[in-house]
Amino acid sequence: xxxxxxxxxxxxxxxxxxxxxxGVSRLPVREALISLEREGWxxxxxxxxxxxxxxxxxxxxxxYALYGEFFGFxxxxxxxxxxxxxxxxxxxxxxxxxxxxxxEKVYEVNGRYxxxxxxxxASDQLVMTLRSMSELVPGNFxxxxxxxxxxxxxGIAALQAAxxxxxAAAATEACxxxxxxxxxxxxxxxxxxxxSAADATx
Length: 202
Prior knowledge:
Elements: H1 15-22, H2 26-38, E1 42-45, E2 49-52, H3 57-81, H4 84-99, H5 103-121, H6 124-131, H7 141-144, H8 148-164, H9 168-187, H10 195-201
Antiparallel strand pairs: 1-2
């Protein structure tokens, strides 16, 4: 509802209305709000309720820039550490992603490619760091964000080509460029913070 603009920055979240609309009790709605607050989407104020934060351009760009850095790091470590079989597996996932025709398939195969890349990097520190990051766009990113599928397919293809050529610099740049473009895609659909609305709830 936040991504679609049904709930706008500064608005109080109508928990009862949402529960009724979804046909659930207030408990799962409250649990969802706890998750959304942890991810930065809302702020809960004692005795007042939960209010939509919205996401500004700086937050979006920083989020995807960090992903670009982390996956670039994973690509460099994978080049140093992965076996020929692991590189072959990545090539198969890349080809499968290129052929994927719908958002669900893209989501599934892209996840497999990136998880395999991270495993090939063999860095426990990278795994822990990535686990600490939450998704900025809930649900299936590729179903929600127009242009995201094209960007991801092009980016993974460029990354895979760089890995196969053993080019760490090109692999790093492919990751950064892909995530910068995804930030542009997200900014085109996410509601932006209205400072006057936010002031009204503070």
